[in-house]
From TrEMBL:
NCBIfam families given in the database record: dnaG
Organism: Sedimentimonas flavescens
Co-factor binding comment: Binds 1 zinc ion per monomer.
Pfam families: DNAG_N (PF08275), Toprim_4 (PF13662), Zn_ribbon_DnaG (PF01807)
Entry function: RNA polymerase that catalyzes the synthesis of short RNA molecules used as primers for DNA polymerase during DNA replication.
Name of the protein in its database record: DNA primase
Toprim domain boundaries: 262-344
Entry similarity comment: Belongs to the DnaG primase family.
Organismal lineage: Bacteria, Pseudomonadati, Pseudomonadota, Alphaproteobacteria, Rhodobacterales
E.C. number(s) listed in UniProt: 2.7.7.101
Keyword list, A-Z: DNA replication, DNA-binding, DNA-directed RNA polymerase, Magnesium, Metal-binding, Nucleotidyltransferase, Primosome, Transcription, Transferase, Zinc, Zinc-finger
Amino acid sequence: MSLPPGFLDELRNRVSISQVVGRKVVWDMRKSNQGKGDWWAPCPFHHEKSASFHVDDRKGYYYCFGCHAKGDALSFVRETENVGFMEAVEILAREAGMPMPARDPVAEKKADRRSELAAVMEEAVKFFRMSLSTQGGAAARDYLARRRLSADAQARFEIGFAPDGWQGLWDALRAKGIAEDLILGAGLAKASTKGKAPYDVFRNRIMFPIRDARGRCIAFGGRAMDPNDNAKYLNSPETELFDKGRNLYNHGPAREACGKGGRLIVAEGYMDVIALAQAGFGGAVAPLGTAVTEDQLRLMWRIHDEPIIALDGDAAGIRAALRVIDLALPLLEAGKGLRFAIMPGGQDPDDLIKAEGREAMERVLDAAKPMVDLLWQRAIEGKVFDSPERKAALDKDLRAHIKRIADPSIKAHYGEEIKRLRAELFDMRRGPAPSGSYAPRTARGAGRGGWVAQPVHPLPMTRSTALAAASDERVTDRLREAMVLAILTTHPVLIAQFESQLEKVPLSDPTHDRLRSLMLLHGHESPDEISERLLAGAGADLEKLMGLPHVRTAPPVLKREDADLARLCLAEELAKLAAERAVRAEVAEAMEDLEGLADEGVTWRITQATTARNRAKQSKLDDTSDMGEDRAALSAQLQAMIDGEIWRKRKN
């Protein structure tokens, strides 16, 4: 649904963000200034005791100085309520007393049809619930009692029973005046091929209503009472309401539970979800009779950043877990992962909770393994690596899986973990010999033994500096980070223009990160206001930053009136910073391959990465204007400092 121009602006103007946020936090009244619309509280997005979460009522924005969460009233509702964009708009519109805009006629007609189908489904829920309490539902009630489903659980999940007849539901719905095409369209009945009246899809089954995130019944799952039935579990066919690959059982309640801090547990079936909910694990869902799909996986990640896959501990459950891994690898993003809780002894969550109680399930969930562990276990399960050929086959298998990961950072971390596990498996890890001790040598040309050289320790003056504690790469990053922040400090009007790049770039220095947070928080104010905010919030840090040798002589810092020069220099430094880190990640991954996971593409990858870095270093330095000369001077000055290792103390 599209919203008319100005609707969201009007909605934001009518809604007070402090009132929206105030439902979820406790304001720190000592730090807040109500008259100015300046509010502070502990952050609702991460656990803390201090009030680092700031809400500006006049601008309608919030920002956390701890976890860097930021946004407006809509994004706050989306994050805290675990709802989508349009749902958040509807929630705030109701609160503001604004009617939602009308849909176009075609969309309106389609929405009306879906509403009618949903109403038919609700009538079916009532029919199945009533049938469970009749004499014909006695066997179903006995079965539920044996499975220890309490009356409260049956009511909570609206469990019902489909009688053993061909047209019980059909006749009941037709008696209420519901049109035949709606009953058929809802997937509750099928047309007869023999010229007779349509017949019920579900017969002699315990019925589980399936509801969408908005709470509408969109389908049913039915468990056969007859052990000889061809299908033990049967789901509704796909309809205008129901797409089994895009929905989850217990989606709405699980989303609400996870929004309150609960874990998202993905079980195999309806009974597992109900057992988990009865035991206090409200954030439980299940796929709908099929293997987990890509859409379902993305749906899970919208509910929780790290779902726990709690499939049965038998062979079929393990195979299902491995299929989820294969599906998830290309979709992984930073902060979005999976963990796997393996049920003991071939049990499912329902069995474990009934046998050993909630505590046993809690222990299994706490011991859930990261995805890389199962990936590794699958690769080595039942195999012996007693020859180079077998080891090479393992390398090839692992390399193929890791290459499927799209995110370069995650790919690098997976490579590091696989390298560690591989080293442990082949006993390749060796601890360093003590300094100055006698240790055997195995290199060509060495005798029976030799002395391990005593490392040269830094002088006390050098050791006391902050830069000496870091690696060369980190020092390089800090020099470039300082230049970026210095340019933005001198030309604060550029903060808003480069906001997205500034927000994404990782900063290695905590002081730099604090300055960046202040800039992002106030970046949309006037330049004078930004400068005042920076001085008030980080005056001492700014003084140190602007006093650095490579900063105070830099052309974009000296030429405060030349915003164009500053803009180009800033873009170049951000590009170089990103390029340096990208090439280090790529080269590190390639070097890891050389140490045991090598292939013919490694040399090409290193060459390409180095070319990319050099291209960034030479970015437009051939500009013939004065501006180009200043940029070249700045780049050369900063590169000379890096190449000269200015942080190291030299011998006289």
